[in-house]
Amino acid sequence: MKARENLVRLKRFQxxxxxxxxxxxxxxxxDFERMxxxxxxxxxxxxxxxxxTDINHFAYPTFAKAARQRRxxxxxxxxxxxxxxxxxxxxxxxxxxxxxxxxxxxxRDGRGRDxxxxxxxxxx
Length: 124
Hints:
The chain is an all-alpha fold. The chain is built from 2 helices and no strands. Helix 1 (2-50) packs antiparallel against helix 2 (62-123). The chain is rod-shaped. The mean pLDDT is 89.
């Protein structure tokens, strides 16, 4: 019944791998959120320094325009990562279900072998 033990180990590895992927996605989402917040502060400071908050004004600071674009790009990337995270969570849930099935099969087989081994020892 080594095959079942190997199957359980494989399923555990897959679950752990998917958990790591989720953790990495969470970290990237948090980093993008932090960077977007920092850019927001820089935009506000630049607008205050220039005294112009209308992005369509001819004298609107170039740095603020570039920072706005970068912030918007980060927020878009963050949304894509959130979608990837949802997919990764679904894959993790499926992998955990497969692991539970494999562990249940191994437990069932383990109990069956122990019972058979006990009968053989009592008969011998």
